[in-house]
Amino acid sequence: xxNRKKIYLSIGIPLIVTLFISIMMALVQKNFNEGFDxxxxxxxxxxxxxxxxxxxxxxxxxxxxxxxxxYLGVHFIRxxxxxxxxxxxxxxxxxxxxxxxxxxxxMNWQCKxxxxxxxxxxxxxx
Length: 126
Description:
The protein is α+β, with helices and mostly antiparallel strands. It has two domains: 1-41; 43-116, no CATH class. It is 34% helix and 28% strand. It contains two helices and six strands; from the N terminus they run αβββαβββ. It has a six-stranded antiparallel beta sheet, with no helix packed on it. β4 (88-91) and β5 form a beta hairpin. The longest helix is centred in the N-terminal third of the chain and has 39 residues, at 3-41. The termini are far apart.
């Protein structure tokens, strides 16, 4: 193989790999942004009537609130494993906050508010 071909390969292959990785990262970030925009538009408020898992849902449950099924995906990750029937859950449209209230042992309501930020692929592993 000539020196010229070796130079082209030594530059071309890393360049193609870098381009491929950049395109994949851009597509993943686009998917994150679209999911976050859907989350921001969501609106619901009520008592959790049912918690169930769809087949192949990768661990995120659906909840039924006011006879409407809501998928608790990645934006609800901090509550999705702990949500119970009887919890009150609210999410206003245009907001990046959702709250969960639960009646405690002493018959008093305990509420937590969660604030979500727009995800970035550069946040992975943090």
